[in-house]
Each structure stands twice: as C-alpha cells, then as structure tokens.
Design brief:
6-stranded parallel sheet; 2 domains; 7-stranded mixed sheet; about 30% helix; Rossmann fold; binds zinc ion; single chain; 16 strands
C-alpha cells in the first residue's frame, strides 16, 4: 500500500490516506521514498502565501525527495536499475518551453505570466498540482526526473539538495562574477548572507568549496542560535542584528565592522525589506545581490532606483536551481567538499508539527522525514 500525507486545503491539518501502489507511468517510475525534506516553501503553500491558480487539492507536499527505484514504466529509457538510490529533480515543470529546455526553473506554464498558455503540463513534484515525497511511494511521469545518488552521499542529505541545496548553488553562482572580481582585484572578497537558516548553511559550504579562504563569509540573523550553527559550518564572522527598523544604522555598521569593510556580494534569504535595505547599505559599489527569500510583505516600499543606479548594484533573483546544479552539488558532497546543514530526523506523523516549527522559525537546521 501507498501511505500518503495529504494537504486537503489551505491552513487545514494534513490527513493520512492509504491506497494501492500506482503502476509506474509508461515513461516514468515509482520511487520508494526513504527521505523527504521539510522546506519553508511547504509552509508558504500550506498558509496560502503562494496561492497559485493551478493549485490542486488534495495534494501531497514534499519537494525534496530521495528513495530507491521501486518500479520502472515499460517505455522508460534509463540506465537506472530497480533498487538504485535516486533523488527526484522536482523542477521538471513543463519540460518543453524555452526556459525548461535551457535548464531554468522559471517555467511560464508554472507561473502563468503569459496568459495565452492554457494547457499546462506541469510536473513540480510536491508543489502546486503534482504529488511529492510525503508518501511512501512516489510516481514520476518521466524517469529522467530521477538522478542517481553518488555512493558517498547519504539519502537524507541527497534529498535536501533538490531544493535548498540547488537554491544555494544557484544564488552563489549568480553572484560569483562579483566575488571573482573582488578576489582578482583585492585578493579577497566579502560576502554577506542574511538569514542563517538551512539554505544559508549550504551557501556557506558552497562558498568555501568555490573560493576557500579567499572569501570572508558573514552570516547574519536575528537569532544567535542559528549563527552558532553557521559558525560551526564555516562562517568566518557572524552578526546578530536587532529586528527593529530603527536599529538599521547600527545593524549596517555591525556588518561593515565585522567584515572589515563593505561587502562585495550578498544573498538575502529572508524576503524582508528591512534585511534587504540593510544588505544594500552594507554593500560596496557595484556589488551583486541575490534575492532568494520570498516576501511576505504585501508591498515593497518605493525602491530607491536612482541610488541603485549610481551605486552600480546588480540584483539577481533565484528560484530553486537547475538539474545541472543538482548534479554538481551531489558531486561536491561526494568529494567531501561540501557538508550538509544540520539535519533533524522526523517521522511522517510529525510533519504537521514540524511545519508549525518551521513557520515560527523554531526549527534549526533542516528537518528530514525518515520513512523507516
Ligand atoms: Zn516550461
Ligand atoms: Zn523548497
């Protein structure tokens, strides 16, 4: 039997359903799930902060999934064998548009900005309208959504690469030119990471793997316990700044003083305007800034575009990451160059309570469902 944890509607408690295990789709496969990460996006979806037009109920969340190959469709072409450990590439989306073909996650069929597209064929496992990993047996339509997990990478770590890991990889890749430039010109780059949760922990490791001691990483948060974790995993300096907007001038100086100067690049994982404006204020001219955190605030205040132009700042948005970056990240972990965030195992029964903790920010590191 397949045991699945269903989200029946926004805000509602999750419900268990049992059903016979599906037959594998002709070109797809069934994965026996061993691990699924509990991501902050699960909370956003549950609490209707995404409110996508194509949202389906009931839906099984869990978009960071690893398991073993259980069954393969009769038309599926793959080098994988039943029993192989695999991670699910969540962001397959329509797989056919310009962006999907070019290994980007920004599929217009997923985010229908082009109203002419009426027949989306979307496969984003564990979000919106396709069932994900909070179940014992997950069906994928196309076996190419499955990647073999390298030998030295445990499955509970591999699953986290599928969203948190590749998001961090994508963010660092986008600000990389500014970091390289600073290293080439000055011998060292200063990078600020605002919001020291699970994705930032990946970003710290990836920065260290790419740039070694040529980069000074400053982890920033309002919670000192998260900064302790960031320090353990490789942050060079940490800044615990006060939440209150009126404390902004001190907060900016804390970053500049601790880094030994303004930062050359930064990533905002929080989606909060206060955090972003502080990051901008602590940045060097011509700095590169990546935006990862989705905003809960209805409306951003007017942007000081003129000063951004005079400062020569570059902004990059980051929505998850590519299949290529997932392969790269798994290889870095396999080679021992990147260590995962702190992991806390939970059962499928504990997912509801875990999401509450993620929502309030009490969850440190990353929570991962273990099926057995
Ligand atoms: Zn697409
Ligand atoms: Zn996620």
């Amino acid at each position: 039997m397949n045991r699945k944890l269903c989200l029946v509607d926004y805000y509602k408690p999750f419900e268990f359903v049992e059903e016979p295990i599906h037959k594998p789709p002709p070109k797809g496969a069934i994965v026996k799930v061993t691990n699924a990460g509990v991501c902050h996006s699960d909370v956003l979806l549950w609490q209707k902060e995404f409110d996508m037009p194509n949202q389906r109920f009931p839906v099984v969340l869990g978009h960071e999934t690893a398991g073993t190959l259980f069954a393969v469709g009769n038309e599926a072409e793959t080098e994988l064998s039943v029993g192989d450990r695999v991670v699910v590439f969540t962001w397959t989306n329509c797989g056919e548009c310009y962006n999907c073909v070019n290994d980007r996650t920004n599929c217009p069929n997923l985010l229908p900005t082009h109203q002419t597209i009426k027949t989306p064929n979307i496969k984003t496992y564990g979000l919106f309208n396709t069932d994900g990993g909070f179940q014992t047996h997950l069906a994928v339509d196309d076996v190419s959504s499955l990647l073999r997990i390298p030998e030295a990478v445990p499955s509970d770590i591999a699953c986290l690469c599928a969203c948190g890991g590749i998001t961090a990889m994508n963010a660092i890749t986008k600000i990389r030119p500014a970091i390289d430039e600073a290293i080439n010109l000055l011998g060292q780059a200063r990078v600020a990471l605002v919001g020291a949760g699970g994705i930032a922990q990946w970003a710290i490791q990836i920065c260290k793997a790419f740039f070694g001691d040529k980069v000074i990483i400053c982890a920033i948060d309002v919670r000192s316990d998260k900064l302790e974790d960031a320090k353990k995993i490789g942050a060079d300096v940490t800044v615990c700044w006060a939440k209150e907007p009126e404390k902004t001038p001190e907060a900016v100086m804390q970053v500049i003083d601790n880094c030994g100067g303004r930062v050359n690049a930064g990533v905002d994982f929080t989606g909060r305007t206060t955090s972003l404006s502080r990051l901008v204020a602590a940045s060097q001219m011509a700095a590169s800034i990546a935006l990862v955190g989705l905003s809960k605030e209805d409306q951003f205040p007017p942007l000081p575009i003129n000063s951004y132009i005079f400062l020569g700042l570059s902004f990059h948005t980051v929505y998850a990451g590519s299949k290529r970056s997932l392969v790269q990240l798994l290889d870095l972990i396999n080679e021992g160059k990147v260590k995962p965030p702190t992991i806390h195992h939970v059962t499928l029964e504990q997912v509801n309570a875990t999401l509450e903790k993620v929502m309030t920010g009490e969850q440190s590191g990353r929570a991962v469902v273990c099926m057995d």
